[in-house]
Amino acid sequence: MLSSRLQDTALRYFLEVVRSGSVSEAATRLNVSPSAVSRQVAALEDLLGVPLFDRRPRGMAPSAAGELLAAHARRGALEADRVVSDIQALQGLRTGLVRICSSAGFAIEFLPRVMAQFRLQYPGIQFHLRVASPAAVTVAVLNGDADIGVTYSRSAERDITVQHRQAAPVIAIMRPDHALARSHSITLAQMHAHPIALPERDNTVRQLFDIGCSQRGLVFEPVLVCNHFETLMHFVLHGGGLSISGEVTVRDRVQRGELHAAQIREPGMSARAAELQTLSGRTLPAAVRMFLQLLQAQLRDNAAPPVPPRRTKAPTAPHP
């Protein structure tokens, strides 16, 4: 890439060792010899007078000094990308790459639809989308591996700028002919009488659901537990019962009338937020800035209004 010519060779080699965790793997990715990589890293260590890596049996991990230098090198690489992108944008937004890392729910329909919409106006823009856990999305942004993180969060993160944030309550999803589909909001007690499919316990939606159940003294026995949301959604579509989700994840299917969504009227169900994250202090390339604006507008569009929690305590249902 043209931007790589704007960076010092030693820093580029050093940063690739940080990313890959070994000199040999870095050399393969850079298409150079391992000795060339070792010489560049050694030159940096001699210049700074400190070891930049802890040498371990299974690879190399950056030392405290190495972490500081890596942060500087990542920012330099990103700034070089931005300069090249902005120079190209002087001729109009004809080319560019937007790198996104997102939680799984956003990648099912929301992001593909918004990317396709963006390319109608800017057909020369390319996208790279990687799906990861919410915490891994933030790490990808911090490491410079993604320009934009689209994820769920419950707390602030150091060195992360939140470009947009909105409540992402847990909702119940069902077929439009389900017995509870007449209601726009329901309680956990109402859900308890019906078969339910749930994500695994490491899912943020499931965690908030479990907290709400604990507060109400309700024990659900799911008929299906799965770590793949599309499986849960198709189980619902085939008449298997209820499930839970975030609003953005099922927005398109609800608008097409394939699913009915009802907010769960319980405390704590809105204790997470959808966020668009970028690296603090970074000037974003033109293509990234413009796509970020579209993402902000699309996330706000049809976002479900918050439902206040009930003030009265729901009756405790017996264990099924």
Mean of residue pLDDT values: 86
Helix content: 40-55%
Which stretches are poorly predicted, pLDDT < 50 over at least 5 residues? 1-6, 304-320
Biggest beta sheet attributes: 5 strands, mixed
State the end-to-end distance: 61 Å
Q: How is the largest sheet built, in terms of strand order? A: 4-3-5-13-6
What's the overall geometry?
A: elongated
SSE string: HHHEEHEHHEHEEEEHEHEHEHEEH
InterPro entries: HTH-type_LysR_regulators, LysR_HTH_N, LysR_subst-bd, WH-like_DNA-bd_sf, WH_DNA-bd_sf
Pfam family, one: LysR_substrate
Family: Belongs to the LysR transcriptional regulatory family.
Protein name: LysR family transcriptional regulator
Blueprint of the fold:
Elements: H1 9-20, H2 23-30, H3 34-48, E1 53-56, E2 59-62, H4 64-89, E3 96-102, H5 104-108, H6 110-121, E4 125-131, H7 134-142, E5 148-153, E6 160-167, E7 170-174, E8 185-186, H8 188-191, E9 197-199, H9 204-216, E10 224-226, H10 229-237, E11 243-246, H11 247-255, E12 260-264, E13 273-279, H12 286-300
Parallel strand pairs: 3-4, 3-5, 8-12, 9-10
Antiparallel strand pairs: 1-2, 5-13, 6-13, 7-11, 7-12
Helix pairs in contact: 1-2, 1-3, 1-4, 2-3, 6-12
